[in-house]
User: Fold these one by one.
Assistant:
Number 1:
Amino acid sequence: MVDNAKNNKLILSPIGGAKWVVVKAVYYHLAGYVFCIPKGFIFDGASIPKVLRSFVNKDGLWKSSLLHDFLYRTQPVSRKIADQLFLLQMKIDGVGWIKRHTVYRGLRLGGWVTFNAHKAKLATN
């Protein structure tokens, strides 16, 4: 996979338990924002609810999921903007309209739980 602006390859290494670690920093340039996901950042890929897994697989969602996990965990932008950037990255990565909008709508419905959990963690640090 290739970054949309910097031509950086997404290099991940599995660490067990369906988790991955970023081996080389990844840069995103989207809608006027610039984000760097640092080497060593751990994420779990796309979190697709079981009920949707027969309709939506994780193919093509690695870059967008990495960005989204980083944005939810670090919260440099609002949840709405994080979700919109996720949608934009899916489009850049060539994810089809139906799949990306299905994932996006699901995220808008239920993502608040995870976002708020990370917000609470950040408040205690």
Note: The first helix runs from residue 62 to 74.
Number 2:
Amino acid sequence: MKRKRTGAKITMHLAGGVHGITRGFTFRFVGGCILGQVLAAYGPIERVAIQATSSSLGLFTRPLGCSQIVGWNSIRMGSAQIAIVAECTSLTPTLILASALFAYPARLRSKLAGAALFAPLIWMFNLGRIVALAFVMNWKPALFDLAHLFLWQMITLLLIAAMFATWRQRQVTEVFGK
């Protein structure tokens, strides 16, 4: 008896129990996150991400007349000067989402499509996040750390989780037709 390729792997995993699929996903996800962070910390990749973020911010905000690029990694918006560091780029959130996508038992084509769709969306979200933080810095500097370290970190994590949940639901719907 031949099994259909679509969904057979997921069906077999579900028949074997939820613990096996959860352990496998967790191991692959954590391993992907660690590998991604090691690669992202490599100097040239980090520098390119920082420069691309600074340049994109300049292109995004210059037509509004509210920014100027100060250095290779700094931008001035109003009275706020923002230094872009590795953590300010969309690299880490994109790597976390890609790790989740590639850890999940789905077709490679679907994983690549998800990564190709979500990476630019995360990039645009991140630019909006930095612009919003610049407004906070100009409006109420005392709230900057709260917004930067807590509010936007949580919103970013929720966005990544929502993107993964949306993609995962589509995988389940394609396999089981529900």
Note: The longest helix spans residues 144-176.
